[in-house]
Design a protein that fits this description.
single chain; about 325 residues; alpha/beta; Nucleotidyltransferase, domain 5; 6-stranded mixed β-sheet; 6 strands
Length: about 325
């Protein structure tokens, strides 16, 4: 073992001396080559004529397969090859169908059939209005804005639904349009198809010129559904009870407190449930569309899917 170790050490020393002797002359002439090239492991260094590249030959001649990537030889093939359809080629397919009202008419026909199946009149006499602000993507498009109340930049979906939660009319516009003006855009477009409509339920955001416009222009009876008042603090209720007790009136302060817990607002929950139905569709999680008409069409498509499944089960 000792002899083997000594012979191995002598061999390594001799090899290192040879490497250093071979490294020095190459390093003096080619200072910017890699370590492997300077050590002489890849053969003699290339000449200057091999390193120079002309404008006619952008690729190295040492690799013949790279000639397939030359620009002059690739362009004629690309020009003659059949072009695959892109997203811009497929986009014009949906807007014509969405603009001409095909999905809206199909939604109306299915809604009337489903209401008749439920024992209701095909044409409703009461409806609920509400809006939902949805974020948009950065691909551009028309009518985009910022909703200061919801802190959302995008578009607003305005819905008119019946008491069953089925969509009567959908309107998509910029999120910067307030609800008091958006109700006019929604009901004006639904004016001709809903002649039997007489009553509306709104939230407090439409109170003012929105409620007044619906009553004066359309002649509808409008009811504003407000949120319950904030509960009275217990300390204040106890102070009131003590003051009344001093005047000789016994008042139970717990009766002054409103009921605790979640309270369902009348008729407001119907349209909120419809927004939840729409949110179950991945395409409706955000507003991905360039056109507002396309966004409205997908609202009708989502409701068509829901109503067809209900009719099939029945």
């Amino acid at each position: 073992m000792r002899l083997f170790g000594q012979s191995l050490g002598n061999c390594l020393k001799s090899r290192s001396r040879k490497a250093l002797a071979a490294y020095a002359p190459v390093h003096e002439h080619i200072p910017y080559r890699s370590l492997g090239r300077r050590m002489g492991t890849f053969g003699p260094p290339a000449t200057c004529s091999e390193n120079q590249r002309s404008s006619q030959d952008p690729q190295s001649t040492r690799y013949p397969r790279c000639d397939l990537l030359r620009l002059a030889e690739r362009l004629p093939l690309a020009a003659s090859a059949p072009r695959l359809p892109t997203l811009e080629d497929r986009l014009p397919l949906l807007p014509p169908v969405a603009i001409n009202g095909t999905f809206e008419r199909l939604n109306s026909a299915l809604r009337e059939r489903l209401r008749a199946r439920l024992g209701r009149n095909a044409h409703p006499s009461a409806a609920i209005v509400d809006s939902q602000s949805a974020k948009t993507t950065g691909v551009g498009g028309e009518q985009r804005g910022y909703d200061g109340g919801k802190k959302v930049r995008g578009r607003k979906r305005h819905l008119l639904v019946d008491t069953e939660g089925l969509v009567l009319k959908a309107k998509v516009h910029s999120a910067k349009v307030p609800d008091q003006d958006g109700i006019g855009l929604l009901l004006e477009s639904a004016r001709s198809g809903l002649s039997r409509l007489k009553h509306l339920w709104l939230d407090a955001g439409y109170e003012g010129r929105g409620k007044r416009w619906a009553e004066e222009v359309l002649g509808l009876s409008v009811e504003v559904v407000r949120k319950p008042q904030k509960p009275t603090p217990e300390k204040v209720a106890k102070i009131w009870a003590e003051e009344w007790a001093k005047e000789g009136e016994e008042v139970d302060w717990q009766r002054l407190m409103p009921p605790r817990g979640f309270r369902v607002l009348p008729r407001r929950w119907v349209v909120e449930r419809t927004f939840s139905w729409l949110g179950q569709n991945r395409r409706m999680s955000k507003d991905y569309e360039r056109l507002c008409a396309t966004g409205e069409a997908f609202v009708y498509v989502a409701m068509i899917r829901l109503m067809v499944r209900r009719l099939a089960r029945a």
